[in-house]
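Marked as duplicate of an earlier ticket. Keeping the data here for the record.
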Amino acid sequence: MSEPRGEWKLIEWIRSRTRLDPTAFPIGPGDDMALVGLGGESQCLLTIDALLEGTHFDLSKATPKQVGYKAMAVSLSDAAAMAAKPVCALAWAGLPENRDMAFAKDLSAGMADAAEKFACPIVGGDITSWNQPLVTVGTALVARPAGIIPIRRSGAKAGDLLFVTGELGGSVLGRHLAFTPRVTEARQLAALVTIHAMIDLSDGLSTDLGHIARESGVAAEIMADAIPVSEDAKRLAKEDGRTPLDHALNDGEDFELLLAVEPVDAQDLLKQNPLKSARLTHIGRVVEGGGVSLVAPDGSRAALEPGGYEHFK
């Protein structure tokens, strides 16, 4: 019988073998970014991402500039998930030998466009070529707390209310190439209310909420009729027979924020949405126990299994 596979199985194995000094490395593998002490009060946050042709983008539907933009925006979204302020980035690309200079320049220009939106210059990187037909591209990002304690996945507490930014589902119709990382919104919210846990929705709400529940040692309940379903999710549902809610729960690559907010502060958010650039929706709550439940409009509950994307599974 073969050993169980999956991205999170591998991450758990890596974490079990990782021995880090918590004073030097307060946050290690398994969160959106690692936190590294630089001596004294100085700290920085680090993340790295890789995008693969055929998995994260399709060059028959996306331009190289869109691919470059997405590559940088994905790492910026990691910074948003921890309410961190981007500082600078590194970028790399593995290009087929038959790709021309115009392709490489457009790819780089897309990265620069995303980076410039958040004053996050690309300060170096690596370019390689190979005799394979696929393009690979990736970024590494340096960020800093800038007055806000980094928000982890593991701090949710029973009683917290759950919120999401934006609308969910159907990103494959184009939004996954053109989203705006919620860096500004994350820092704005973190400065106003106590956020116990936060994650960016890269793998799908059902999966990413499961990460928060598991890492925090709690359970979560979300209301089916409260999930903000995008128009793209509704369009896809007409084409493939899945429900719009199924798309909103499981499609992934929305790159919106999911946050668990301290109950008293959450009441303020319910009264008045402080965000001008994004919709903010209350979708559920954190409770004692384990796992995630979906509450139907009639009040019935059912276990919500992670239905989003998981690499290496």
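See parent ticket for discussion. Residues 161-303 form a domain with the Phosphoribosyl-aminoimidazole Synthetase; Chain A, domain 2 fold (CATH 3.90.650.10).
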